[in-house]
Amino acid sequence: MSKYPFHEIETKWQRYWDEHQSFAVTEDPSIPKEKRAYVLDMFPYPSGAGLHVGHPEGYTATDIYCRFLRMNGYNVLHPMGFDSFGLPAENYAIKTGTPPRATTEKNIENFRKQIKSLGFSYDWNREISTHSSDYYRWTQWIFIQLFNKGLAYESHTPINWCEACKTGLANEEVKEGKCERCGTTVVRKNIRQWVLKITEYADKLLADLDSVDWPESVKLMQRNWIGRSEGASVLFKIDGSNEHLEVYTTRADTLFGATYMVVAPEHPLVAQLTKTGQKEAVEAYLEASARKSDLERTDLAKDKTGVFSGSYAINPVNNKRIPIWIADYVLISYGTGAIMAVPAHDTRDWEFAKKFELPIIEVLKSEVDVQNQAWTEDGVHVNSDFLDGLNKEDAINAMLAWLEKHKLGSKAVNYKLRDWIFSRQRYWGEPIPLVHCPTCGTVAVPEDQLPLLLPEVSSYEPSGTGESPLAKIDEWVNCSCPVCGGKAKRETNTMPQWAGSCWYYLRYLDPNNTKQFVSAEKEAYWMPVDLYVGGAEHAVLHLLYARFWHKVLFDLGLVSTPEPFKRLINQGMITSYAFQRKDKSLVPTDMVEEKETDVFVEKATGEVLERVIAKMSKSLKNVINPDEIISEYGADSMRMYEMFMGPLEVSKPWATTGLVGVYRFLDRIYRLFEERVIVDEEPSDELNRTLHKTIKKVTWDTNTLNFNTAISQMMVLVNELYKIDVLPKVVAETLVKLLGPYVPHLAEELWERLGHSTSLSTAAWPQFVEELTVDNQIEMVFQINGKVRSKTTVPKGLGKDEVLAMAKRDEKLASWLEGKTIVKEIVVVDKLVNIVVK
Ligand code: ANZ
Ligand code: ZN
Fold this sequence. Notes:
Catalytic activity: tRNA(Leu) + L-leucine + ATP = L-leucyl-tRNA(Leu) + AMP + diphosphate
Family: Belongs to the class-I aminoacyl-tRNA synthetase family.
Structural class: alpha+beta
Organism: Sphaerochaeta associata
Distance between the termini: 64 Å
Number of helices: 27
Oligomer: single chain
Bound molecules: ligand ANZ, zinc ion
Radius of gyration: 35 Å
Low-confidence stretches: none
Binding site for ATP: 618
Enzyme class: ligase
């Protein structure tokens, strides 16, 4: 068996593409807009661990699509770069003293080499790294545009703080109360920070989701994160004072059931509401709740806590005096930070009322006793005066009208979305280009002084006090004010890692422009991104932040489309098999033995283990290293296997046996071309049909990113070719073209061997003839008295008389008809003829 020399082939063609700049792309004005495509991958963070198998999955998918589009006459932009600011390099610097720049650049080298070893058709002339000053100069410039537009402001409200990372975090970076990066429980800390007014774009961010072709799940996550809520703001007079307490409610219809009020511990009126006798209790309570995270405070399972303020409010609809409590299940950051509590119809209020023995009044006819449990569904209103008899929706409208008439309330809209906490108290990020001047206030660094370089430091340790390591460098911090020239100090916070990825897709369009972040012509030539592929974990982080910046740039007239990414696809996760004991604990793969097919036992104990699907992890020793796979089976096998595993969007377990199967398939193709004589002849009718069916299916499936089924069809064709001894040239060439996007190295090699001197990547995609792709021959069944007596193949759509005549001429039927009388003739077109005889 001849060995398939993938190693030489792959090295040869990677060098060829590099030398010939095969995938460098320019803005050719003669190509119309609909024949241009911008296909984007989520760029990687160059971690020390190198590429993992998840990266090539998305990258292969986009690469196949790009190569396919090029062969179909498209001008394709397909760039790659590195998201190279970020905490891991900095944490490594703290541990080892290696500067983050050195680590990052070494990692980038490695990543680039690994990515190149997979033969992706990137235009490497456009490579960018977010940590390079040529790049972050423009990240800083965009920040200044936001600052000048009033979209960046300094804030002192408590923020999420990770004690381990020693930095503030955005709400989006807090997952179930923990730091998204390190898992430490997030606490609240009062530090000065820079915040971006993403909330100003809440409505646009929500509305424009309807205009993009994205997975519904991602749109839903963004909608929920933005969390638009429609309700009413209602004013409650504070008894014995001229002040009002304003609440936000989605259930104005339940006002007659509001039996108490609650304000958040941070509410500005707390001090004023607290009566002398309650002072000590309130202060103790405020202190205790300050130590809790939002999650602990709002967790439904947690016991409700609170303290009475000593004050009362007047319920505007019935003038009843109701107590005002302070409780931390009400968040200061939502609505007005105060609520009217309706314990009969809200679970949290009900729990609170039970605990503190507050009255519970039913205002919707309930199917339960509201003294025993809250009724949160709809019902006819009761105990509600002018609302009695109305359902929820009508009652809300009636109450709103009443409130507006009496000037006690109005319609209101609220969002869950909070402004984006944008500053980090860390070293390895873009310095925020602002200067604090005692005379002029906070001013932006002038454009001609950008980039504001990140200074070299000797210690990367964050202070933990809320200042970045930059604060320790006096020569850097002390500067002169760009406005008045007086002594001033630089802002020492840095930007979060998300900043660089908010606009990188724009820099690829014009990576070397020293005058602008992107030229208007190039932006208009390519944008928006036609296809964006990446992991689902970015649904509300990167993808929301990038949309926000893009919309700001759009409003400034700096980009031409309101949305950056027209179509988005989330690749599924590549998981792995793991082995589980009866007690559900997992056994590292190297301690497992396959006794017989699909029977796995733990080596040490002999316990039979169940094979389950799990995330790849170091501890389970089931991490697949792409470098090893490539060196053992080749990049083409790796590419094709990852596409053959299943639909792009679903998560699927890695199985090396599957990879070997794909490798064998490629080996079979290689040998086919080695062993078969290739002749300039027309293929047989049958082969020609298989060929055209294959072209049709591969074209369709590649265009719709259904790569796994396209590969299956190519396998069908190759099997057919193994049945014949000589290979018609047109069939051989077509097969190579179809393989081109999938296994570009092998395909280029075979293309060259077929006598071509130019790269396959510029060849035209094969076309199919529709008639040849439909089955024209069908099997016709001939029956006598309902019993099948003969079969024959006939052209599809043959008329009744013709098939009947054929049946009567059929030799096998002759003996059954002889001497009989035909009483009936039944013909079902394209199916059967039944002759009834006596
Ligand atoms: C009275 C009421 C009666 C409510 C009822 C609900 C059910 P969404 O839909 O998420 O916007 N609320 C308002 N501000 C709050 C805050 N800062 N912290 C905690 N809860 C707050 O939720 C709006 C509802 O959440 C509001 O409507 C309010 O309770 C509560 F049968 O008012 B409702
Ligand atoms: Zn000044």
